[in-house]
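quick one: S-adenosylmethionine bound model?
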Amino acid sequence: NFRCRSAFKLLEIDDKFRLLQPGWSVVDCGAAPGAWSQVAVLRVNSAGTAEGDAALPHGTVVGIDLLNIPPLDGAHFLSSHDVTDPVTHTKLLELLPNGRAHVILSDMAPNASGFREMDHEKLITMCLSLIDLAEKILQPGGSLVCKYWDGILAHKLQKKLSSVFSSVQTLKPNASRKDSAERYFLARMYRKPVKG
Ligand code: SAM
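yep, here:
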Protein backbone atom coordinates (compact mmCIF):
# COMPACT_ATOMS: atom_id res chain seq x y z
CA ASN A 1 0.00 0.00 0.00
CA PHE A 2 1.42 3.33 -1.07
CA ARG A 3 1.07 6.46 1.04
CA CYS A 4 0.09 8.55 -1.94
CA ARG A 5 -0.97 8.10 -5.57
CA SER A 6 2.19 9.87 -6.72
CA ALA A 7 3.91 6.47 -6.31
CA PHE A 8 2.43 5.41 -9.64
CA LYS A 9 4.24 8.18 -11.49
CA LEU A 10 7.61 7.01 -10.23
CA LEU A 11 6.74 3.34 -10.84
CA GLU A 12 5.83 4.23 -14.40
CA ILE A 13 9.05 6.19 -14.96
CA ASP A 14 11.18 3.46 -13.38
CA ASP A 15 9.47 0.63 -15.27
CA LYS A 16 10.37 2.41 -18.49
CA PHE A 17 13.89 3.66 -17.71
CA ARG A 18 15.17 1.32 -14.95
CA LEU A 19 16.79 4.12 -12.99
CA LEU A 20 16.64 2.40 -9.60
CA GLN A 21 18.81 -0.71 -9.35
CA PRO A 22 19.32 -2.99 -6.33
CA GLY A 23 22.24 -1.72 -4.26
CA TRP A 24 22.04 1.87 -5.46
CA SER A 25 21.80 5.05 -3.40
CA VAL A 26 18.89 7.41 -3.90
CA VAL A 27 18.08 10.85 -2.54
CA ASP A 28 14.36 11.69 -2.57
CA CYS A 29 13.78 15.47 -2.42
CA GLY A 30 10.39 16.65 -1.17
CA ALA A 31 9.68 13.15 0.11
CA ALA A 32 6.63 13.63 2.38
CA PRO A 33 4.43 11.69 2.91
CA GLY A 34 6.86 9.07 1.52
CA ALA A 35 5.31 7.29 -1.47
CA TRP A 36 8.27 7.85 -3.80
CA SER A 37 10.59 6.67 -1.05
CA GLN A 38 8.46 3.50 -0.74
CA VAL A 39 9.01 2.84 -4.44
CA ALA A 40 12.73 3.60 -4.13
CA VAL A 41 13.10 1.25 -1.13
CA LEU A 42 11.53 -1.59 -3.14
CA ARG A 43 13.59 -0.97 -6.25
CA VAL A 44 17.03 -0.45 -4.67
CA ASN A 45 16.31 -3.17 -2.11
CA SER A 46 17.29 -0.98 0.86
CA ALA A 47 15.01 -2.95 3.23
CA GLY A 48 16.15 -6.29 1.80
CA THR A 49 12.61 -7.04 0.61
CA ALA A 50 13.22 -7.44 -3.13
CA GLU A 51 11.52 -10.52 -4.50
CA GLY A 52 13.55 -13.37 -5.85
CA ASP A 53 17.27 -13.38 -5.37
CA ALA A 54 18.13 -13.13 -1.66
CA ALA A 55 21.67 -12.18 -2.58
CA LEU A 56 20.65 -8.89 -4.20
CA PRO A 57 22.66 -5.95 -2.83
CA HIS A 58 20.99 -3.55 -0.40
CA GLY A 59 20.79 0.07 -1.49
CA THR A 60 20.27 3.31 0.40
CA VAL A 61 17.32 5.72 0.39
CA VAL A 62 17.48 9.15 2.00
CA GLY A 63 14.34 11.30 1.92
CA ILE A 64 14.19 15.02 2.70
CA ASP A 65 11.23 17.28 3.37
CA LEU A 66 10.30 20.52 5.12
CA LEU A 67 7.42 18.51 6.60
CA ASN A 68 7.49 15.46 8.80
CA ILE A 69 7.90 12.16 6.95
CA PRO A 70 6.53 9.14 8.87
CA PRO A 71 9.20 6.44 9.38
CA LEU A 72 9.68 3.76 6.71
CA ASP A 73 11.76 0.57 6.83
CA GLY A 74 14.75 0.90 4.55
CA ALA A 75 14.68 4.70 4.38
CA HIS A 76 16.48 7.38 6.35
CA PHE A 77 14.43 10.56 6.55
CA LEU A 78 15.55 14.13 7.12
CA SER A 79 12.25 15.69 8.20
CA SER A 80 12.11 19.47 8.76
CA HIS A 81 15.02 19.91 6.35
CA ASP A 82 15.25 22.23 3.36
CA VAL A 83 16.73 20.63 0.24
CA THR A 84 18.34 23.94 -0.73
CA ASP A 85 20.11 24.37 2.63
CA PRO A 86 23.88 23.58 2.68
CA VAL A 87 23.38 22.05 6.15
CA THR A 88 21.18 19.41 4.48
CA HIS A 89 23.88 18.78 1.88
CA THR A 90 26.44 18.13 4.62
CA LYS A 91 24.13 15.61 6.29
CA LEU A 92 23.57 13.87 2.95
CA LEU A 93 27.31 13.50 2.45
CA GLU A 94 27.46 11.71 5.81
CA LEU A 95 24.45 9.45 5.20
CA LEU A 96 25.26 8.28 1.67
CA PRO A 97 27.79 5.47 1.19
CA ASN A 98 30.99 7.19 0.01
CA GLY A 99 28.99 10.42 0.03
CA ARG A 100 27.59 9.52 -3.41
CA ALA A 101 24.08 9.06 -4.82
CA HIS A 102 23.37 7.22 -8.06
CA VAL A 103 20.01 8.95 -8.45
CA ILE A 104 18.45 12.19 -7.23
CA LEU A 105 14.65 12.23 -7.31
CA SER A 106 12.63 15.39 -6.81
CA ASP A 107 8.88 15.61 -6.61
CA MET A 108 9.26 18.88 -4.66
CA ALA A 109 6.70 21.58 -5.08
CA PRO A 110 6.21 24.94 -3.36
CA ASN A 111 2.86 25.69 -1.79
CA ALA A 112 0.89 26.85 -4.82
CA SER A 113 -0.11 30.51 -4.66
CA GLY A 114 -2.61 30.06 -7.47
CA PHE A 115 -0.65 32.50 -9.63
CA ARG A 116 0.55 30.13 -12.30
CA GLU A 117 3.51 32.18 -13.49
CA MET A 118 4.79 32.77 -9.97
CA ASP A 119 4.46 29.12 -8.93
CA HIS A 120 6.22 28.08 -12.13
CA GLU A 121 9.15 30.40 -11.39
CA LYS A 122 9.44 29.23 -7.80
CA LEU A 123 9.55 25.57 -8.77
CA ILE A 124 12.09 26.20 -11.54
CA THR A 125 14.33 27.95 -8.98
CA MET A 126 14.03 24.93 -6.70
CA CYS A 127 14.93 22.62 -9.59
CA LEU A 128 17.96 24.75 -10.44
CA SER A 129 19.19 24.30 -6.87
CA LEU A 130 19.23 20.55 -7.50
CA ILE A 131 22.05 21.13 -9.98
CA ASP A 132 24.17 22.47 -7.09
CA LEU A 133 23.18 19.47 -5.00
CA ALA A 134 24.17 17.16 -7.86
CA GLU A 135 27.61 18.73 -7.97
CA LYS A 136 28.12 17.77 -4.33
CA ILE A 137 26.67 14.27 -4.21
CA LEU A 138 25.78 12.84 -7.61
CA GLN A 139 27.94 10.04 -8.95
CA PRO A 140 29.36 10.62 -12.45
CA GLY A 141 26.99 8.80 -14.82
CA GLY A 142 24.14 9.31 -12.34
CA SER A 143 20.57 10.46 -13.00
CA LEU A 144 18.17 13.14 -11.84
CA VAL A 145 14.38 13.13 -12.08
CA CYS A 146 12.71 16.44 -11.22
CA LYS A 147 9.16 17.65 -11.31
CA TYR A 148 8.45 21.07 -12.77
CA TRP A 149 5.45 23.06 -13.86
CA ASP A 150 5.65 23.94 -17.50
CA GLY A 151 6.11 27.57 -18.44
CA ILE A 152 8.47 30.12 -19.95
CA LEU A 153 11.52 29.18 -17.85
CA ALA A 154 11.35 25.43 -18.52
CA HIS A 155 13.80 25.65 -21.40
CA LYS A 156 16.26 27.56 -19.21
CA LEU A 157 16.21 24.67 -16.75
CA GLN A 158 16.51 22.19 -19.61
CA LYS A 159 19.54 24.06 -20.95
CA LYS A 160 21.25 24.08 -17.53
CA LEU A 161 20.57 20.37 -17.12
CA SER A 162 21.93 19.69 -20.61
CA SER A 163 25.18 21.43 -19.67
CA VAL A 164 25.94 18.74 -17.04
CA PHE A 165 23.90 15.72 -18.20
CA SER A 166 24.46 14.00 -21.56
CA SER A 167 20.78 13.16 -21.96
CA VAL A 168 17.77 15.26 -20.90
CA GLN A 169 14.19 14.47 -21.77
CA THR A 170 10.72 15.64 -20.77
CA LEU A 171 8.29 13.12 -19.31
CA LYS A 172 4.55 13.33 -18.76
CA PRO A 173 3.60 10.09 -16.98
CA ASN A 174 0.13 8.70 -17.68
CA ALA A 175 -0.46 8.86 -13.92
CA SER A 176 -0.01 12.66 -14.09
CA ARG A 177 -3.28 14.52 -14.68
CA LYS A 178 -3.60 15.44 -18.35
CA ASP A 179 -4.84 18.95 -17.60
CA SER A 180 -2.04 19.84 -15.20
CA ALA A 181 1.15 21.71 -16.13
CA GLU A 182 3.12 19.06 -14.26
CA ARG A 183 6.07 17.56 -16.15
CA TYR A 184 9.28 15.77 -15.21
CA PHE A 185 12.77 16.17 -16.57
CA LEU A 186 14.74 12.96 -16.73
CA ALA A 187 18.43 13.86 -16.89
CA ARG A 188 20.90 11.01 -17.33
CA MET A 189 24.66 10.47 -17.61
CA TYR A 190 25.85 13.14 -15.22
CA ARG A 191 29.25 14.66 -15.84
CA LYS A 192 30.74 17.08 -13.36
CA PRO A 193 30.98 20.63 -14.67
CA VAL A 194 34.42 21.69 -15.78
CA LYS A 195 35.57 24.65 -13.69
CA GLY A 196 37.05 27.43 -15.80
N1 SAM B 1 6.85 12.48 -3.73
C1 SAM B 1 6.07 12.62 -2.50
C2 SAM B 1 5.39 11.28 -2.24
O1 SAM B 1 5.32 10.49 -3.19
O2 SAM B 1 4.95 11.02 -1.11
C3 SAM B 1 5.09 13.77 -2.61
C4 SAM B 1 5.81 15.11 -2.64
S1 SAM B 1 4.77 16.53 -2.50
C5 SAM B 1 4.06 16.64 -4.10
C6 SAM B 1 5.92 17.87 -2.50
C7 SAM B 1 6.72 18.03 -1.23
O3 SAM B 1 7.80 18.94 -1.44
C8 SAM B 1 5.93 18.62 -0.06
O4 SAM B 1 5.84 17.68 0.98
C9 SAM B 1 6.76 19.84 0.37
O5 SAM B 1 6.83 20.01 1.77
C10 SAM B 1 8.12 19.50 -0.19
N2 SAM B 1 9.04 20.64 -0.34
C11 SAM B 1 8.79 21.83 -0.94
N3 SAM B 1 9.86 22.62 -0.86
C12 SAM B 1 10.84 21.93 -0.22
C13 SAM B 1 12.18 22.21 0.16
N4 SAM B 1 12.76 23.40 -0.12
N5 SAM B 1 12.88 21.28 0.83
C14 SAM B 1 12.30 20.09 1.13
N6 SAM B 1 11.05 19.75 0.78
C15 SAM B 1 10.31 20.67 0.12
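The helical segments are 7-17, 35-44, 86-95, 116-137, 154-164.
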